[in-house]
Amino acid sequence: MKKLILIALFLLVACPGPVPVEEIRDTDAFLTWQAPTLNEDGSPLTDLSHYVILQGDKAGEYTVEHTTTETQYLIEGLDPDKVYYFTVKAVDVTGNVSEASNEAAWGN
Predict the structure, then answer these.
(1) What is the rounded CA–CA span in Å between residue 12 and residue 90?
(2) In this predicted model, what pLDDT tens digit does every residue of 52-83 receive, in sequence order?
(3) 42 is a domain residue
(4) For residue 41, what is the domain's CATH number?
């Protein structure tokens, strides 16, 4: 069974677009999103550094942090009997961090 969840994110540096969470196997979640192209002030975004994916097992409470420079991320080894929550933030080269995206849930 595949699950797809969208996350929209908003940045100080503009945020990535919607983030679907797709189940690859019963224990893996695959997240993808569109890279932001504008800063919050509307100017072109030219200094995006990386993304931070936050993961937790309670809504709004994140205990695990993943980082990537890609617009996709595979999270493996999840317990299929639990529900996990994810949100994504974008970070620019000077350390400005976007607000968190909307929260996506994965699992049963």
Answers:
(1) 9
(2) 999 999 999 999 999 999 988 999 999 989 99
(3) yes
(4) 2.60.40.10
